[in-house]
Amino acid sequence: MAPPAVRKIIHIDMDAFFASVEQRDAPELRGKPVAVGHGAARGVVAAASYEAREYGVRSAMPSVTAIRRCPDLIFVRPRFDVYRAVSQQIHAIFAEYTDLIQPLSLDEAYLDVTANRKGLATAWATAKDIRRRIWEETGLTASAGISYNKFLAKLASDHRKPNGQFAVTPDMGAEWVTTLPVKRFHGVGPVTAAKMNRLGIETGADLRDKSLAFLHQHFGSAAEWYHAIARGEDDRPVNPHRTRKSSGSETTFRSDLTDVAEIEAGVLGQADSVWRWCETAQRFGRTVTVKVKFADFRQITRSRSQSAPVRTQEALREASLTLIRGVLPTQKGIRLLGVTVSNFPSEDAEAELPLLGGAA
């Protein structure tokens, strides 16, 4: 029997998508620090331009914190109808190259181009052509990662951002991973990365040196995943039909939150992030869960199920606020906040990755 064909997978990630759309449509914003979101006291940053990121402004950050970091920050109200329309343009381009498209959000997706519908010489040429088409048709830039599996493709798309691409070939994948800090690995959030660092795991090489038994002892069910990715291994296919049981978002903050307004703004930021997925996927759940991790690493969740699905952003925000207010005020600082919507009408879902840690 012939060996199975090596997959050719591209991860496309738009560059600062929401903010870039606003800068495209309002030339006076170009070159300036821009945040998409509500600048009010309880507002949060939905997206930040690269100029704003230079000041440390990030998505899901409370607006008051963002303004402290960048006093000249310009807030622009989000226009999700415009972002969805642009996303549809981008996905229409993807569909010309492959049927195997797995969207992750409005602005990123995996593409399996092994079949080479366009007859281009390499996956590198395919990614370059897709990025050219996106620029010509939308006026926006995208970055691409090309590799033989999804884990490496996603890592690679960050390697030449913005407006670049990087390939990790089969003969370099396993060794390339060893050179990277574990905090860059998809699925390793700040808390997990810090735990790994305390255990002497700073790089992919350090992670590869740990036995599976050691990883089981310290990371439980995630051990097999860490053991595999430290070797550049990931067998997950690009699945265009993946159905999710839930949609969740969580963030670990650089410093613990103690102010009630900042805590509430943090929860609203996670709720807004979840809502973007729900609205795009047109899937609405009945159960809202808020996750809180305190400074001492004690973790709690609070959930509420309703008789009908949550179908508006305001309803999701209100439910999330009600749940977080049930644990406020608190004497302990809060290091992580998360919001999840679940209990969709259809529950025939498959999980792609365990939730291994919060995003920075």
From TrEMBL:
Q: Can you quote the record's cofactor note? A: Binds 2 magnesium ions per subunit.
Residue numbers spanned by region Disordered? 234-253
What domain of life is recorded for the organism? Answer: Bacteria
> Pfam family example for this protein?
IMS
Q: A GO BP term, please?
A: SOS response
Enzyme class, UniProt record, top EC level = transferase
Please give the Gene3D superfamilies that the UniProt record associates with this protein. 3.30.70.270, 3.40.1170.60, 5' to 3' exonuclease, C-terminal subdomain, DNA polymerase, Y-family, little finger domain
- Please tell me where this protein is predominantly located: cytoplasm
Record-given protein name: DNA polymerase IV
Q: Which organism is it from?
A: Stakelama tenebrarum
